[in-house]
Design brief:
Length: 131
């Protein structure tokens, strides 16, 4: 794994650790496997966006969904975005500034993944436009 991949994995892990998204210890192996599968299948920035989207959608749910179920919901976000990209528009529930507030990470890295996944979208909803 090169340095760029390590940084990308650390950014995803930072979000997971910051919000305790792994869930129960009994799910740890399955959770780690799912995260690695998603990182191998999609750009890490896209996974960051999906984690934050899922977090924001489930913010007020008590108890908040965690573990493999949380990752499955984030994966569904990515699948939905694939369909939206094909139609020319991707809609996110947060802005780059909100992403930075939620994660403490540079939003430019995550949002730039939309431009390369899987093809360049022709429009991006105004709420998700890069600052």
């Amino acid at each position: 794994m090169d340095i760029q991949q390590r940084i990308q994995h650390q950014r995803v892990q930072h979000i997971i650790d910051s919000y305790g998204l792994m869930g129960a210890a009994s799910e740890a192996d399955g959770f780690d496997t799912y995260v690695n599968d998603l990182l191998n299948q999609y750009p890490s920035g896209l996974l960051e966006l999906a984690l934050v989207e899922t977090l924001s959608k489930n913010w007020l749910a008590i108890p908040m969904q965690k573990g493999v179920a949380f990752l499955a919901a984030a994966h569904e976000c990515i699948k939905l975005w694939q369909e939206e990209i094909a139609s020319g528009s991707v809609s996110l529930g947060f802005t780059p500034a909100q992403f930075a507030n939620i994660t403490g990470l540079d939003p430019q890295i995550a949002f730039s993944s939309l431009a390369t996944f899987p093809e360049s979208p022709s429009t991006l909803s105004s709420q998700a436009a890069i600052d």
